[in-house]
Amino acid sequence: MNLVVCWIMMVIALNGNMILHLRLVKVGADGINSLVRKRMNIEPFTINYNQMGLVATVELSDSGDNSVAWQRFLPTGPVALLPLNDTTSSLVWTHTPAQAKELQSMPPQEFVDALNDAFYKDYPKDTMTTNLMDTLSTFCSAKTIRQYPPAIVAVKDKSRACFPLGFGHAPSYVAQGAALVGDAAHRVHPLAGQGVNLGFGDVKCLTQVLADAVYSGYPIGDKNALLKYERERLMKNVPIMFGIHGLQQLYSTTFSPVVMLRSLGLQITQNLPPLKKIFMQQAMG
Ligand SMILES: Cc1cc2nc3c(=O)[nH]c(=O)nc-3n(C[C@H](O)[C@H](O)[C@H](O)COP(=O)(O)OP(=O)(O)OC[C@H]3O[C@@H](n4cnc5c(N)ncnc54)[C@H](O)[C@@H]3O)c2cc1C
């Protein structure tokens, strides 16, 4: 959002000796280390995943229609390509901090090879899960065909950067005269690509709540009016955040029963179009 504080309300006139005193709302849109949140004396609940998100801009071999986002869950964490234009995609690659730093400083061609490996290489599979999935596929007609993203041919110069990944949630989004939006209020793992959507939802809700409050005669920034924003967003954000955290945990283990359950869940979702549609709608916000 690139805004630390939005001052919602303007001075209308300052004329001669006249001084106008106006109530303002401070909106903390200043990210995970929010200064506004600190000033509101709100201490977030945090979990450090001990993972880094390596981002980069990469060029693809196919110059066709690059309109599909790809994600593969690897033992080290997910790797994802998000389309930017016909030939370029944005990369988000989860790794341990040491691996991420090594990939960031690797010569470009070595990095491209490692990235193609991440998407194309066959990793050893959990035998129990493979047997279960094979048995299931004999009962259901749909056969899962593995699909591949376009090959990566280059990484844009100086586009590689690493960010620590974690979970964070402010126990309260509002105080008298102040409200938090976006990552200042909540932080999720990028595996579901929902961080920005949650923030956009906050902004839409906050502007509506402020407009309604002023229209109903509340002083702007009144905490009771702002609490409506907090309630509405907690109801939306918390289930999504815990869903994403659950996925992060689910894909961080090699424990066979869990691997089996998650594979089963994916298979069921793949074979039940209405369920798949619900997940797709949620992901698109
Ligand atoms: C590796 C990685 C990959 C991600 N991928 C995705 C994705 O694919 N899809 C998705 O939806 N989300 C993704 N996210 C999450 C997404 O980036 C965040 O949810 C989103 O950027 C939050 O927006 P924001 O405006 O709240 O905070 P920020 O984007 O952090 O913006 C805060 C702004 O405030 C400024 N600021 C902070 N403090 C001050 C100060 N004291 N004075 C002046 N300025 C200040 C900062 O410079 C910054 O510009 C990803 C996150 C990471 C780490």
TrEMBL record:
Keyword flag Ribonucleoprotein: no
Names of the cofactor(s): FAD
Keywords: FAD, Flavoprotein, Monooxygenase, Oxidoreductase, Signal
GO CC terms in record: mitochondrion
UniProt xrefs under InterPro entries: FAD-bd, FAD/NAD-bd_sf, Ubi_Hdrlase_CS, UbiH/COQ6, UbiH/COQ6_monooxygenase
Secretion signal span: 1-16
GO process terms (BP): ubiquinone biosynthetic process
Top-level taxon of the source organism: Eukaryota
Annotated Pfam families: FAD_binding_3
GO molecular function: FAD binding; monooxygenase activity; oxidoreductase activity, acting on paired donors, with incorporation or reduction of molecular oxygen
Residue ranges crossing the lipid bilayer per the database entry: none
Domain FAD-binding: 178-234
Record family assignment: Belongs to the UbiH/COQ6 family.
Protein name per Swiss-Prot or TrEMBL: FAD-binding domain-containing protein
Organism: Hermetia illucens (Black soldier fly)
